């Protein structure tokens, strides 16, 4: 409706102002804490800046009170990486399966969507309960039998069991929905051509389908990592003794009253931005390579 | 060509039944994750909500005592609200406020991107700008309001400097206002993306036709654009409403741990190891959320739209 060169209607300027305000609303607060994390040693939680220093970063580096923040950082990073890989490895075949017909197709789709919609606290509570019941059963078994290898059993819940599962119920539906969108726009003529030329299904997938959808898979991976990296609600009741970074952060919001928490925010956000930049860079490179190959 | 094609054709025919089995193998790992970490936990939650518990253990049983405890005295006390009803009502109010704000804002932003930005690369760039914060930490995005809304924050400093207020305003942070603000800050994207998606599919000639038939800008918006955006609006609404209904993190941090919500009640009960009553609360919450979704989906068939 708006062609290039046509005069902009008044509505455009109103909406452009709204958009600009929205962007300021989105980025303003984060910019404020990034700036404030460089407070001088005597600076407080609010403006004005009391000098400029990296004091709070070096303090952060030494650790935040009793919480071993860097261990949590590492745990979240590793968990995020595992969730990212599993999200791609599980969502891709599922996306391929949905292109064919199979029994239970619509039920599985409904379950995946329901997993997005059911409140996270309910999912988290359910997973926590499940692991608790398993733990009680194992402990009961240990008492009843006296088996040595069960002695000292604490819990099956942990980073790579309950927390991993909780994260996947959140990342996999996003992955599936992205793949749905991708395959809806996918031209099957390419696959048919490969098949006509004698390619096996595996080779068709490897040399035709995957290269075409590679940029979208980067997107799925990005969702997998970043959603896991920030996850709080689903993890809260489904984590063993050792917290992830966002869970520690949630606790720190009430206890830390120095710009150290801003420094931590700057580092965490920096980490997210690096991952986003890698993903966007990856997509651009893949697109260019494809354009070069096609042209 | 014929010679090369025929064996492949035979192959394809022979492979057909095997390939349908392939779909099961491909979907199985995905399905197993949801079975183990979604279906089973939900069933357990429902089951445990009927269990009996004492200080030491959970005992399988079928009792309604947990539900009675959740709604203890609620009917007798009416018309004054018991704690449970008050909590549900306050959570509903948050959901309603967040919904209205995200809907208006999300619709406006999506409308700008879909109808006023002229080139696709520009559209993608602006869209990306809106999306990037979604991929960063929600907790940090909440903490980030402290230097702006706190007693000595930028907003209070500004208001005092221009003389709009003599004493710093206390209701800016750790209040209902800041909770709703954070919801809007965090979740407008969930509204904007599906609405934008719906708008992008609208055939532009429909709008030109409306204009040619003499419709004003508002009339076009109301009778053409909004009806065609209904699926996006419903999907976005489901997202925002369900997230806010179950929230305890945002209400906790932005409410200074002083404001109640259903999610927070469940979380506190879990931390006191009162599992069955937490489960009963979770089942009630789930029921309410499903009811809201059902009501919204009456308005539109979502599965047809995806």
Automatic annotation (TrEMBL), chain A:
GO cellular component, one term: plasma membrane
Domain ABC transmembrane type-1: 73-279
Top-level taxon: Bacteria
Subcellular location(s) per record: Cell membrane
Transmembrane segments: 12-38, 77-96, 108-131, 168-187, 208-229, 261-286
CDD domains, per the entry: TM_PBP2
Record's keyword annotation contains Zinc-finger: no
Pfam family, one: BPD_transp_1
Broad class of where this protein is predominantly found: membrane
GO term, biological process aspect, one: transmembrane transport
Alphabetically ordered keywords of this record: Cell membrane, Membrane, Transmembrane, Transmembrane helix, Transport
Membrane topology classification: Multi-pass membrane protein
Stored PANTHER family: PUTRESCINE TRANSPORT SYSTEM PERMEASE PROTEIN POTI
Annotated family: Belongs to the binding-protein-dependent transport system permease family. CysTW subfamily.
Protein name per its UniProtKB record: ABC transporter permease
Automatic annotation (TrEMBL), chain B:
TM region positions: 27-53, 94-114, 126-146, 177-196, 275-296
InterPro entries per record: MetI-like, MetI-like_sf
Sequence similarity: Belongs to the binding-protein-dependent transport system permease family. CysTW subfamily.
Stretches assigned to the ABC transmembrane type-1 domain: 88-296
Alphabetized UniProt keyword annotations: Cell membrane, Membrane, Transmembrane, Transmembrane helix, Transport
Membrane topology label: Multi-pass membrane protein
Major subcellular location class: membrane
Species of the source: Roseomonas indoligenes
UniProt keyword Secreted, yes or no: no
KW Electron transport (keyword) present: no
Subcellular compartments: Cell membrane
Gene Ontology, cellular component aspect: plasma membrane
GO biological process: transmembrane transport
Name of the featured protein: ABC transporter permease
């Amino acid at each position: 409706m708006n062609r290039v060169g046509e005069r902009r209607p008044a509505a455009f300027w109103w909406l452009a102002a709204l958009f600009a305000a929205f962007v300021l609303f989105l980025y303003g607060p984060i910019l404020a804490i990034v700036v404030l994390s460089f407070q001088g040693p005597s600076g407080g939680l609010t403006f004005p800046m009391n000098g400029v220093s990296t004091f709070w970063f070096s303090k952060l580096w030494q650790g935040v009170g009793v919480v071993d923040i860097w261990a949590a950082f590492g745990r979240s990073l590793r968990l995020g990486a595992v969730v990212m890989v599993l999200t791609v490895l599980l969502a891709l075949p599922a996306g391929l399966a949905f292109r064919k017909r199979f029994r239970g197709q619509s039920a599985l789709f409904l379950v995946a969507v329901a997993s997005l919609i059911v409140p996270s606290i309910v999912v988290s509570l359910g997973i926590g309960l499940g692991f608790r019941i398993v733990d009680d059963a194992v402990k009961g078994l240990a008492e009843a039998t006296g088996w040595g290898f069960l002695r000292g059993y604490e819990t099956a819940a942990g980073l790579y069991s309950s927390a991993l599962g909780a994260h996947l119920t959140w990342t996999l539906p996003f992955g599936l929905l992205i793949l749905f969108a991708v395959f809806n726009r996918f031209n099957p003529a390419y696959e048919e051509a490969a098949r006509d030329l004698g390619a096996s299904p595996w080779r068709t997938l490897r040399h035709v389908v995957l290269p075409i959808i590679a940029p979208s898979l980067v997107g799925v991976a990005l969702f997998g990592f970043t959603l896991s990296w920030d996850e709080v609600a689903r993890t809260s009741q489904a984590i063993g003794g050792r917290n992830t970074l966002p869970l520690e952060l949630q606790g720190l919001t009430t206890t830390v009253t120095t710009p150290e928490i801003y420094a931590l925010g700057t580092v965490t956000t920096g980490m997210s931005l690096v991952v986003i930049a890698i993903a966007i860079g990856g997509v651009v490179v893949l697109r260019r390579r494809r354009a070069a190959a096609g042209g | 060509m014929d010679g090369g094609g025929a064996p492949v054709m035979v192959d394809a025919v022979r492979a057909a039944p095997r390939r349908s089995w392939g779909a099961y193998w491909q979907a199985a790992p995905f399905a197993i994750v949801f079975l183990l970490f979604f279906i089973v936990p939900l069933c357990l939650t429902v089951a445990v909500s009927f269990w009996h518990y004492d200080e030491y253990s959970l005992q399988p049983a079928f009792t309604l005592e947990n539900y009675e405890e959740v709604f203890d005295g609620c009917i007798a006390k009416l018309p004054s609200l018991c704690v449970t009803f008050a909590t549900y009502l306050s959570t509903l109010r948050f959901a309603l406020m967040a919904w209205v704000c995200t809907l208006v804002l999300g619709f406006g932003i999506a409308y700008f991107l879909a109808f006023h930005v002229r080139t696709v690369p520009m559209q993608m760039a602006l869209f990306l700008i809106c999306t990037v914060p979604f991929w960063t930490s929600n907790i940090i995005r909440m903490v980030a309001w402290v230097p702006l809304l706190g007693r000595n924050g930028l907003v209070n400093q500004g208001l005092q400097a221009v003389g709009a207020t003599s004493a710093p305003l206390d209701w800016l942070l750790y209040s209902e206002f800041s909770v709703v603000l954070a919801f809007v800050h965090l979740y407008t994207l969930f509204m904007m993306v599906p609405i934008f998606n719906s708008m992008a599919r609208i055939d532009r000639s429909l709008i030109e036709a409306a204009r040619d038939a003499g419709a004003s800008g508002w009339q076009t918006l109301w009778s053409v654009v909004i009806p065609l955006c209904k699926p996006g609006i419903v999907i976005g609404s489901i997202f925002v409403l369900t997230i806010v209904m179950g929230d305890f993190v945002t209400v906790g941090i932005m409410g200074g741990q002083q404001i109640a919500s259903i999610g927070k009640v469940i979380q506190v009960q879990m931390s006191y190891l009162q599992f069955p009553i937490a489960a009963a609360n979770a089942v009630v919450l789930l029921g309410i959320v499903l009811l809201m979704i059902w009501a919204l989906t009456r308005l539109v068939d979502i599965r047809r739209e995806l």
